[in-house]
Amino acid sequence: MKIVELTNVSRWYGNVVAINNVTMTLGSGVTGLLGPNGAGKTTLLHMMSGFLAPSQGELLVGGEPAWRNPGIYRHLGLVSEREAVHGFLTAWEFVLASAKLHRLPQPERAARRAIALVEMADAQDRRIETFSKGMRQRTRVAAALVHDPEILLLDEPFNGMDPRQRLHMMELLHQMGGSGRTVLFSSHILEEVEEVSGTVQVIVAGRLAASGDYRTIRRLMTHRPHVFAIRSTDDRRLAVALMHEDSVNGLDIDQGGLTVRAGDYGAFTRALPKIALREGLRVRQLIPSDESLESVFSYLITA
Amino acid sequence: MNLTIAGITARGLFGRRRFLLLFPLPLLLLVLTLAAKGANVDPVHWAPSVIDGMGFAVMVPVMALIVGTGVLGSEIDDGTVVHILAKPLPRHEIIVAKLVVAAGITAVSSAVPMFIAGVLVDSVRFGIALAVACLVAALGYSGVFLAMSLLTRRPVLVGLLYVLIWEALLGNVLSGTRVLSIHQYALSVTHAIAPNDLVKAHVGLPAALAMSAVFLIGGTLLAIDRLRSFSVAGETS
Questions:
Q1: Quick one: which H or E segment has residue A236?
Q2: Residue A68: closest CA among B81, B90, B74
Q3: Which stretches of A179-270 are assigned E, i.e. beta strand?
Q4: Contact yes or no for A78 and B91 at CB 8 A
Q5: B94, B84 in Cβ contact below 8 A?
Q6: What is the pTM of this model?
Q7: Interface contact A18, partner B, CB < 8 A
């Protein structure tokens, strides 16, 4: 397994610090790189892909320095944010050229496989300049996958794709992550990250704000009450009983049921079944309503 | 040489509109030559202006500039260079492929009209001398302009400054600047192969050849080193 390791990596432009002392390790599986616009995601990806030198710190790809080391591209595939491609080439020529530049033993076979992976076989003989944005993007992904890399870095890979293509790309990333490859993709669309990966690296103002499974990250934010939507056979009686519980900070009740704000996630989820049993109530629904990536992300960037 | 890169580079060059700029100057050179020849005037009175003043001073460097900055500079401008750089290729392989395409296209597109002009003006020998000089100049200019694509964001402007200010202006006023003028090396090569009064050499042939090699090899090594440290602009999103 090839991993990407950043140790105290910083990057600055004059007086502006774009990336500030980031340490992270990316292993097998799919990881989402999240951050608001201008947070430094692209700068980070450029450094990981060897297109930008860290001003400070160490950045290793598969155990080798990424900067000034073309050898890393033997096991790294890159889909950059800029959409520029050699538009005068057909998709087939473009992907085949990539296979040849990787010196693959059977370039035609590799190109055919990569084009099939992104479902571009029907349009492979058309010049890329005639493609839609989504088709161009898929062609670039095919070129990045042609050597079956162990590490895949994608900057906003779903840009311009229609919903069906987007689903297909998500499936592809899932498969790659599932087969032990290291996949990192950046996105500012939270739903995309949520659907593709539970593991995130959140960059805010050049710093690594959080790292890991976003549901776990949420649970570690003890200063933020956890919000649960609950429905039971008698919401009012349950509300009265819950008010005696130390882990409950507050609650609302309306026709839709109970909304409980719990200060301690573990204590509340352990106490609730006991309270329901004691009161002779049946809990019909218990949904952690702020465990979505969107909630976690908004908590992180406003922290 | 990496044929895949050379092929993509050549197709990219022929596919861009700037390639059309390669035609007017050779055409103008041939039209001027034919017009002067048709007027039955002694070539001594007009050939230096056409061959040197138009051919070597303008046509060859401008063509080299268009091609030399086009083979890599255009890919850097539009970002397509990332697709080539994100491959496990030694950077010298990329630069050599680009250099061969640049020098080859410049040499052919300038040597052919110069050969024809040389034959019309004087003799086949003079035509061959001009063609060989074009080849030497194409190699020197290509090395310089390829390196400029990686040293500056405005390689065409810097290249024009070199050609117009250094070679054309200072070269006529300060004789010392001729030692660093590819234009002058081309004249030396021409004069060495076909000595006549139509072209005057100000730099000795050994120095001209050695300096041409310095421009070619120096530019190539510089370009390789700069490409190794090529950074993508760090825009963030």
A1: helix A235-243
A2: B90
A3: 182-187, 199-204, 207-213, 226-232, 248-254, 257-262
A4: no
A5: yes
A6: 0.84
A7: yes
